[in-house]
Specification:
There is one protein chain. Helix 15 links the parallel strand 12 and strand 13. The chain contains 16 helices and 13 strands. Strands 9-10-11-12-13 form a 5-stranded mixed beta sheet. Strands 1-7-8 form a 3-stranded mixed beta sheet. By secondary structure, the chain is an alpha+beta fold.
Amino acid sequence: MPPQYQRRESVKNPLPLSVPSFAARLSHTQAQRLHLLSQGMLTTARKRARKADVVAAIERMRLLQIDTIHVVARSPYLVLHSRLGHYQQAWLDEALEQGRIAETWAHEACFVPAADVALHRAWRLRRDGHWAHKHAARMDSEQREGMDALLARMRESGPVRASDFSREDKGASGWWSWKPEKRWLEALFARGEVMVTRRERFQRIYDLSERVLAKLHPAFDVAQESIDEVSLRRHFILDTVRALGITQSRWIADYFRLRPAVTDAELAPLVEEGRLLRVDVDGWGVPGYVHPDWRDELTRASKGLLRATRTALLSPFDPLVWDRARALGMFGFEYTIECYVPEAKRKFGYYVLPILHRGRLVGRLDAKAHRSTGEFEVKRFFLEPDVKATDAMLEDIAAAVAETAQWHGTPAVRLRQARPTHVAAPLRALLR
């Protein structure tokens, strides 16, 4: 990561207005590699992961989406593993408890750097169309007395979790079947009145926001909560472009769920002011945008000096693939998160992990970790139709699968099916 990337850009003190647009043209492959570089996914890690790398990776991505499905490792842990290799999952939990990161609604429920918490709290009121905020508004209107009583309990007795309260109707499911206290906690979280102070076995432990904000490092900046909407939107646009490395305008809004969509017309002043570089990319037909912090890497990309060496399994909620339009436009990879699709309509499987191999998304596998037996089951393995398997590719993929399985504590890998079928035997041999 270049040193300048780690600098937090101030919303109140924008970049100088002297950075010209970038004149060179990138090939599509060069754009892919700049994108992967920005996400920390271009090359294989050269050193063993350290605790500080967890926070650094989140700062680089700007957010880390949270999802509770744990057919394999839960998504935030797997996203970090894709970037860091072997690391201790407890490091993420410790970073939250120590206030180095915090939970908030961003793309969806996400971990974000501590330095950005005030900005996300300021943007909270612009998320009123999200389901969580709609339900929070309804709770506040209809059940405020119960919410206040819960806050009073927390103020007197300390943090709570939803499981501290019993549920009367244990047969129902969905938001409105939740016990009242769980609905109140979710509503208070969406409204910013409580925050997650830590997690235990991935279960949220809630506390009053003022207590959680007081432990943030760097310290919470109260003044940032009052930033005007135009400056705040610009900040999230610039942060998105920086996180993506290179992007089209139409891919920007999804990253932080901005509304309305971002357009080339909106970005034109940022280019003129030097806050963004405009780049032509072969085959795009529309401008590409790069943050000036990546200017040196952009130059290297244009000269063909960025080499892709990493092979990794990706979480379905990895920033590289969660936007279907961007995954298709950037990698030609058509991807649907099928755990939310009825079983009869699934094409690939319940929890399908895309496979990144040396700059390309070359396939996917439907996996399940059997923790009690130490087995990592690959139910089905697929290569993309236009991908020709080589011995080196299969070796890299087998190594990535084995590494993920070993890190997960399920080192015995079993491959059930593969497409095309002729790769099944060599893959099984490599996975023994």
